[in-house]
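A quick word before the example. In earlier lectures we treated sequence and structure as two separate objects. From today on, think of them as two lines of the same record. Here is CBS domain-containing protein written that way.
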Amino acid sequence: MQHRTVGDLMTHGVVLARRDTPFKNIVTLLSENEVTALPVVDDIGHPVGVVSEADLLRTVAARPDPTGLPRSPNASNGARAANDGITAEQLMSAPAVCARPEWTVVEAARLMDTEGVKRLPVVDEAETLVGIVSRGDLLRVFLRRDDALRDEIAGDVLVRTLGLAPSDVAVDVRDGRVTLKGRVETEQIIPVIERLCGGVDGVVSVHSALHRRLDETAG
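And the structure line, produced from the sequence above:
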């Protein structure tokens, strides 16, 4: 079984900011590249934080309103106007929460969920930025066609990995939902089959109608 990794799904040509990138330049980079956040790197390419549209908007919300409305109650007292020399280092969320290229989709998704972030800078063994992966990137595995999922389950999982005969288990896949029907030698192998099929990239759910094959010579 060949799982898609973060390295397979990430964006390689990363648009980034430096610690001293000014507010307006960040806005320009976000707009021109149609992205919602930028990793911020130090002088040797190590991610030190991420600056997002939300970070920029917090600074805007802290400015005096031209209509005389009071400042947002969530605004930082130390926030400065956008034209007051504020930089990426002052705006960014830090430290950067990073992933590795060899991670699976599950590993990256769990870290995003735990840390409450929408994207992860990806770093190599030297902690140097090599890409960025977003929630949308991880969800791309669920765009796999049903026939590709069926072929991987029937061929890679059932036959090559578990050594079952092609006639033992019938596999049906519709909209990523897998249905398994058939008979196997032991009941103990049924949860193993279900777990391996559920681990195939792009599978949404697994419904099992598998049963133990009765020994016809018994009795």
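Notice the following. The first helix runs from residue 6 to 9. We will return to this example when we discuss secondary structure assignment.
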